[in-house]
Amino acid sequence: MEQELEMPVDTDIAKGLTETEAAQRLEQYGPNAIETQKKESLFLLFIRQFKSLIVAILALAAVVSFSFGDWLEGFAIIGVLLINAITGFILEWQAMRSMDALKELDVTMARVIRDANVKEIPSEKVTIGDVIWLEAGDIVPADAHVVEANQLQSDESALTGESLPVEKKPGEPDENAPLAEQIHRLFKGTAVVNGNGKAIVTDIGAKTELGKISQMVESATQTSTPLEKKLESLTQKLIWITAVLAVLYFVFGLLQGKDLLTLLKTSIALAIAAIPEGLAIVATISLAYGMLRLAKKNVIIKRLSCVETLGSANVVFSDKTGTLTLNQIQVNTICLPEGTLEVRVNTEDKKQALVSGDGELVKNTSYQKLAELSVLCNNAHITPDTTTGDPLEIALLQWIYLQQIHAENLTQKNRRINEIAFSSETRIMATIHQNEAGYLVAVKGAVEEVLSRCNNSLDAEQEISLDEVGKKKWVDMSEQLAAKGLRSIAFAFRQTSTLPADDVLLQDLTWVAMIGFLDPPRLEVVPSLKSCHDAGIRVIMVTGDHPSTAQHIGETIGLTDASVKPMTGRDIPDLKQLNDEDKKRLLDTRIFARVNPGQKLDLISLYQEQGDIVGMTGDGINDAPALKKADIGIAMGLRGTQVARETADMVLKDDSFVSVVAAIAQGRIIFGNIRKFIMYLVSCNLSEIFVVTASGFLSLGLPLTPLQILFLNVVTDVFPALALGIGKGDSSVMRHPPRDPKSPILSKPHWMAVIIYALLMTGSVMFAAFYSAEVLGINAADDNNIVFYSLSLAQLFHVFNLASGNSGLFRNEITKNRYVWLAIIVCMGILALTYYVPVLRDALTIQNLHPIEWIVVLAASLTPLVLIQVLKRLRVVW
Length: 878
Fold this sequence. Notes:
ten-stranded mixed β-sheet; alpha+beta
């Protein structure tokens, strides 16, 4: 309730700031934002590219070259250093830009009163003096002074450590009191968990209590995601394996009496060849591009680790309202004691039409009372252009306004003085009003809950007793509406001359009517559910609605059939005392109705104990624990509370289940892309290692110079790998079962394929070198060039081997990837420069090749591609 208080800032509580005043204060005080970590400058980002093991090894190679007087090779290695740094800088900068773009899509909104209207604005635009309106589920956008409170409670545990909700009241704030005792203030970042109220903003951004704490932290600590840890582990293994090979090669070469400088530089080059340059950066780019694609499909990913988990999900608990239905709630059926009216909206002139039933009923007292209660027991706001509030309450106001009933007259005659907010426990909402006759208690809620508090019914023009038989009639009617897919809400009231005590306020009510709301099912969900079935994903509806309503929607969209009945919350057994039969019954159920938040948690735990990866959709503040417990928490962006959106791993901008399936598919594609570019990089690097070490152990000439190996890594590896990482992926990903999240990036079959790929490229190139030297009588310099160009082209063509094994030879996700063709064109162009530009020719010791030598190069580079395609068709390799 409003009180006459000394306001800390000059603001009209009823009208709020004007837009002009708000703009002036926003310019004066700045945006309501907290800079938790300073952005790294582009200069520091570039310098950081030199802080790596790869750079240290390259620098050592350059020093060795300079010390032995090989100036050309030394400067060439420094050039490679710069190319590596520039490439890494560009890729990481692009990744940072992509992540910034994603953050801009996930904007937190706040409701403020400006020019006497309630408006939703980005929380960054909230300024000092703004009057904010808060309800259960909202995140407080700024520090504020409470001026009106209806059972208002906030969760300040993140700020003060107090685990219990704190009741907030209007009053003079004592800023010297501990934060936990400041009941007249609200703090930025805390969550409203009950009731509603108004508050005037006193501090924003860095001046808030949360901002002061944030300033004490110099930088945010970022933990590695599971994928990053797996990539780091993979790189470490490759480094150690190749380090051993390099040492063996060096020792073996010394025993053979080979040149020390060549041995040293080749050993260093071998170590470099083992490290897949840009592995983490390409992975980040792949994740960022995938997340941007999802953003275009109405899915905002808030945590990178969520992308990894998405591809493993095999169970999805989905809410009904707005996710499996359109969330276009309309008043459909009005059930009065005297009869029933069917309601439709005429889309031509936007006038409400009563298309069936006795039209005279609208003149009855019960109909007029229902209209009055629909306006009074309502927190929604609608204007000709905008609507804010709960969709069901918005539907009630739309029905009222289209009937040309003047809501303003009703609210003026019945001044609201208090409210009992809706909760999942009581399942009712009540508002208390003062009028000429005394006090009016307006109530709406679940049919069973409202009926249990009613002793009378408003029949025609008078109140009559409502006995158990009469209550049973209304329950049966609710069942009939639910069987048609309608959601029933009951309305009742109590008029008294004096205000009843709180403990009896909601007793001795008079029943008025029941309204059936229609929320049509999303027909586009049908193919998405089939896609989930094909992908080995079980979809389970979990709703607080009536079981018959849930059953009707489930049958309509193909989730279940008439033979499979829903399980209600009261039928769910205690999970701590489950026997095998109960567990099987729970795991076989596809629709759970009348489920409370605690039971959602239990269901998630049950499936997780079976080893399932569980996704859970939610929108309310009571869904937050379940969203946090699930492996993938999915919040609704349109109707979800801020608390739900903050807790979740991903947010659906359209609230549709179709977007959930799109996210799972994209998660699988992203992980598939990462696996492909890793297989490509590792197999290419292994082929270089095998070529050099095989030549050394077989006492053959040096097939590749250290600089040539470095060139191969920089040119033929990075660009095709990047193209694989940002491809649109395999369209058949949703026709395969989910992967095990505990499995490594490369399983044994993948490692087997990688080794076979590398051996085939090595064998083909080595045979070309042997054939050129022994049969064609080509000199050692030309032989070196044949190996260099054969391996370069073989690695480029090898990118086509990374297509899925069940895809077509010429029509697959690789050949359709335009970035792959662009990468090949760029790499071909660079290889041409090495042959024709004198500086590059000298640095890489390139000689002119005869036509017959180019034929050998072409044959050697295409042979691995042909052989691997044959093995893939025979299912020998992945």
